[in-house]
UniProtKB/TrEMBL annotation:
It comes from the Bacteria. This is Thioesterase family protein. The keyword Hydrolase applies. The keyword Glycoprotein does not apply. Keywords: Hydrolase. Pfam families: 4HBT_2. InterPro entries: 4-hydroxybenzoyl-CoA_TE, HotDog_dom_sf, YbgC/YbaW. Belongs to the 4-hydroxybenzoyl-CoA thioesterase family. Transmembrane segments: none annotated.
Length: 141
């Protein structure tokens, strides 16, 4: 299983009045992790968009384990949990610098045509990218 890792410095603006990272910022970090994973594999999400495709989130699950605060550095670990004909599930771990798990999550995506929002298979538009996801997915058939 291939895991991409990306560090994110926690900014003051990402915290609430208690000095704890506001929960919605984890979603932004997940997007950073997903984009980093795609880049690490040699592909670009911007390239998909330029070709007329989008990959909207259709489901999201996140479990908060240990609060993070301003001044810390979060490590975002991202991988392909499952990948099928139309859906891809990304897995995430967000860690403290000492390795303590701050949050775990998954996000499920479909690939759609930008103009119609009709689902399309990644295998149809980029068979090499699809094959890579099939190769590295955590859950095999």
């Amino acid at each position: 299983m291939f895991v991409s890792e990306k560090e994110v410095e926690i900014r003051y603006a990402e915290t609430d009045q208690m000095g704890v990272v506001y929960h919605a910022n984890y979603l932004i970090w997940m997007e950073i992790g997903r984009t980093s994973l795609i880049k690490d594999l040699g592909f670009t999400y911007a390239g998909l968009e330029a070709e007329g495709y989008l990959s909207p989130v259709i489901d999201l699950s996140i479990q908060y384990k240990a609060a993070m605060t301003y001044g810390q550095t979060a490590k975002v670990r991202t991988w392909i949990e499952t990948h099928g004909k139309l859906r891809t599930v990304y897995g995430y771990e967000i860690l403290h610098e000492d390795g303590t798990v701050a949050a775990t999550a998954t996000s499920e995506h479909v690939l759609v045509k930008k103009d119609s929002f009709r689902p399309v298979s990644l295998k149809k538009i980029d068979p090499i990218w699809d094959a890579k996801y099939m190769e590295i997915r955590r859950v095999q058939d």
